[in-house]
Design goal:
This protein is an alpha+beta fold. The chain is built from 13 helices and 46 strands.
């Protein structure tokens, strides 16, 4: 078998039909390398159809094309294109003939193309797709995930035909069960042999087996091998050991096909008494909900970006990801396998009831089974995937029909994979939306504003939403939908945790979405209740779209002013992540790390002094807009508020060595001490005390006047490969490396050598600057340039800004698959 990347040689344009071209319409083809987001380069505008939900990006229909040469000697072989994801309504044409299609924008799908190929000459592959008012967040568009070309002999191991499971494990050995589907497309009955072996990474063969299989013409057969691995190295969070299963299909001693499948040996168990267990040890999920976009890259799922995201999330204390609200890319799952990150892979955001004008609800009834089959086919051999989710905030879950659909989806998944638990992110408020909406209208009058959607309603209701979720009405309405699950996923329903321990003693609960302001309260519920297995923050990583969901505004003396979740253009991001879109950790991330018990050093977050004395307008998804800086030019002698996050009893502040205040931790919010002092440049030190004794301290210093460009790359070696990237962090600092957060300016980036500037941006949640230009304004003193290799050889990145000496960084390049070690710069 030949399986090779099919990411290069493509071009893209806005879709133009043949009839339109006859009428004179034309669009230029632009050469691109996949994965590629066709929307991210388009101009945003305040009147974009998707509005704040789609980050004010336009809608669009696009088409991609690529030439494919096949030789006469290959006639009779099976040619398959594997698309890891195309957004959306993909239609694949070969030489003008429709070869395959897929409605969902997030499913991996395959298209057999050999019936349409012209052997011995050039062929054209075209893919058309679109995005238009079909989501509640930024989706991107186009072939935004990897594509592979697979070529097989007429008798072969089926694509996605190898499944490895490891249910039987003890301290001395593991039974590895390998099932392989063998297909015979010929007109002759044939007997072939399948040989299977298991190798630990970098270590000799552990186990092997071989058996014949007879195939009738045009049929498939399943071969099962049970292999014993002695003294197995188990896959876990701290030691994600991986094995490779090698398969060879032989006909009369000749190898006619081969596969190599990476897997991990691990066991998942879950019950209300001992919670979630990984390899027999209880694990509490420190979870991050994560959308699929990669910030300045748009929706493009490039392997290096996914790896960096997992590394940053792990550094921040997370041990689990919930793919919100669609199946994760294979590249992300590969990174989670290698680095030791648990995953809940989520199937759908809608079933039969739509949330956007033209979303997947119109296709769900026809496609859901195929999409669940695709989900399992993608995930089955990934040890990081520990759970499937069948949905997110599905309104139908509060109805009898929703109970039918819940059972239908759950049982379909179990028929495909009985080794993983099933959950569903159920929001009791949404499950009762019909009654809630009627009640709100009655209470507020006919003018009640519901135009901001369910997020807007949830903002208006506030804490009452949790009371609704814990009501007897919701208990009854959601009973059937919860009953089909192995783990009851609850969005913003922590009021049910203790209640359900009594009402439903066998119910296992995961907080599948929770508000940032309730981190400490929710984590205490997780720690102290065996049946509550984890908490998933909304969100772990900021994302494009739902623009302004977690924004912080300030009232100008208007006591009736309220926060809004849909901000006007040029708002771009939700601004609700622990980590911003460039990968920088925000203050909430350090607070959460302390709550998790993973950090003992205090953290200082300073409120922006220009807003002192004004009332903040915050949504339930907001964190304060404080940042960790003691550089506030122009505010000398002015009052300034700050927060110190700590697990101590008390915190004392020293300003230039002089005590200026002491505060008890937890008076207003658990794990937080609050202060107001007069801003004076210099050194600000927070000293944390436990039982009257100092146990840790941290210091912020004011940046000096001189301005430098600090430029660092997260890798020192690039691979000439479509999956590699270098992330170049840009900061405006003084000579000591202290960031000047108040001197933002436009930085320009040039790239010399075999590479291109794939993206350039900042974390600014409200900007009209594109990510595809070669210059961008910093935000709080920082920006990020993303470099993509195009060949072999050194790459020099030069950054310039007014008032600064130019700065350069040189990155090596290698034609092999040996990539540079990715590192994080604090």
């Amino acid at each position: 078998m030949a399986r090779k990347p099919f990411n290069e040689g493509w071009s893209v344009r806005t879709r133009v039909s043949a009839f339109a071209e006859l009428g004179g319409a034309s669009e230029q083809w632009v050469d691109v390398v996949l994965p590629h987001d066709a929307l991210i380069s388009k101009s945003r505008s305040s009147d974009a159809p998707a509005g704040a939900a789609g980050a004010y990006f336009p809608s669009g229909a696009f088409e991609y094309r690529r030439k494919l040469d096949v030789y006469g000697a290959d006639r009779g072989k099976v040619f398959i294109l594997e698309f890891d994801g195309v957004y959306r309504d993909a239609m694949v044409y070969v030489n003008g003939a429709l070869a395959g299609q897929d409605a969902y924008g997030y499913s991996r799908f395959t298209v057999r193309i050999d019936p349409y190929l012209r052997f011995g000459t050039a062929n054209e592959v075209r893919v058309v797709c679109r995005a238009h008012r079909d989501s509640r967040w930024y989706t991107g568009a186009g072939i935004y995930r990897d594509v592979h070309l697979i070529v097989k002999e007429p008798i072969h191991i089926g694509v996605d035909g190898v499944r490895v499971t490891t249910a039987d494990i003890d301290s001395e050995r593991a039974m590895v069960e390998v099932t392989a589907t063998i297909t015979n497309t010929t007109a002759v009955t044939t007997t072939v042999n399948l040989a299977t072996s298991v190798n630990e990474e970098g270590i000799a063969e552990d186990a092997s087996d071989e058996s014949p299989v007879t195939l009738l013409p045009g049929t498939s057969a399943v071969v099962r091998h049970r292999l014993m691995v002695e003294d197995p190295a188990l896959w876990g969070l701290d030691s994600p050991s991986l094995y490779t299963c090698f398969l060879q299909l032989r006909d009369a001693g000749k190898v006619i096909d081969r596969e190599a499948v990476t897997f991990g040996i691990r066991r998942i168990q879950v019950d209300a008494r001992r919670g979630l267990r990984l390899n027999g040890e209880t694990v509490k999920l420190r979870g991050a909900c994560v959308h699929h976009d990669n910030g300045p890259l748009g929706a493009a799922s490039i392997a290096a970006a996914e790896e960096r995201r997992v590394l940053v999330l792990k550094e921040a204390g997370f041990n689990a990801i919930r793919s919100s609200h669609n199946p994760a890319s294979s590249a992300l799952l590969d990174a989670c396998d290698r680095l030791g990150m648990l995953v809940i892979d989520e199937a759908f955001d809608v079933w039969t009831s739509g949330k956007s004008d033209y979303d997947y609800a119109t296709d769900f009834a026809q496609w859901w089974e195929r999409d669940l089959e695709a989900l399992v086919a993608k995930d089955i051999n990934h040890p990081s995937v520990i759970m499937y989710s069948i949905g997110n905030e599905i309104p139908e879950t509060g109805t009898p029909d929703g109970g039918v659909w819940s059972r239908r989806l759950a049982e379909k998944l179990r028929s495909l994979d009985a080794t993983r638990p099933i959950t569903n992110g159920i929001n009791g408020f949404v499950s009762s939306l019909d009654l809630v909406l009627a009640g709100m209208k009655q209470h507020q009058g006919a003018t009640a504003d519901t135009g901001a959607g369910v997020n807007g309603m949830m903002t208006q209701v506030g804490d009452m939403m949790n009371q609704i979720s814990a009501s007897e009405m919701v208990s009854e309405r959601t009973a059937e939908s919860f009953s089909v699950l192995d783990v009851a996923g609850m969005n913003y329903g922590d009021g049910r945790y203790l209640l359900d321990k009594a009402l439903f003693p066998n119910r296992v609960i995961a907080g599948t979405e929770t508000f940032p302001g309730q981190i400490a309260k929710n984590w205490d519920l997780v720690k102290t209740n065996n049946h509550v297995i984890g908490d998933f923050a909304w969100t772990g990583w900021d994302y494009l779209g739902e623009a302004g969901l977690g924004s912080v505004g300030y009232a100008d003396g208007d006591t009736s002013a309220a926060a809004t979740v849909a901000k006007p253009y040029p708002w771009l991001t939700a601004w609700t992540g622990d980590i911003d879109i460039t990968g920088e950790r925000r203050p909430a991330s350090y607070y959460r790390e302390i709550v998790f018990g993973l950090r003992s050093t205090p953290y200082i977050a300073v409120h922006r002094p220009q807003f002192h004395g004004r009332t903040p307008l915050m949504t339930p998804w907001s964190w304060s807009d404080a940042i960790s800086s003691w550089t506030w030019e122009g505010f000398e002698g002015e009052p300034i508020q700050l927060e110190v996050y700590s697990d101590s009893d008390d915190v004392e502040l020293l300003l230039n060595g002089v005590p200026v205040g002491r505060s008890t931790v937890g008076e207003k919010l658990a794990f937080r001490a609050d202060f107001e002092i007069i801003y004076t440049p210099g050194d600000l030190t927070a000293v944390a005390y436990k039982d009257g004794h100092e146990h840790s301290r941290v210091q912020l210093s004011t940046a000096r006047d001189q301005l430098h460009l600090d430029v660092t790359s997260d890798v020192d070696l690039l691979t000439a490969d479509t999956g590699d990237l270098a992330f170049v962090r840009i900061a405006l600092t003084d000579e000591n490396g202290i960031v000047h957060n108040g001197r933002d300016r436009k930085v320009a980036v040039t790239v010399d050598g075999p590479a291109t500037l794939q993206g350039l941006g900042s974390a600014n949640p409200a900007t009209d600057e594109p990510f595809t230009a070669d210059s961008h304004t910093t935000f709080d003193g920082r920006a990020l340039a993303i470099i993509r290799p195009t060949g072999q050889g050194p790459v020099t990145v030069t950054v310039t800004a007014s008032g600064c000496e130019p700065a350069t960084v040189t990155i090596g390049a290698n034609a092999t698959k040996e990539t540079g070690e990715r590192h994080l710069v604090s």
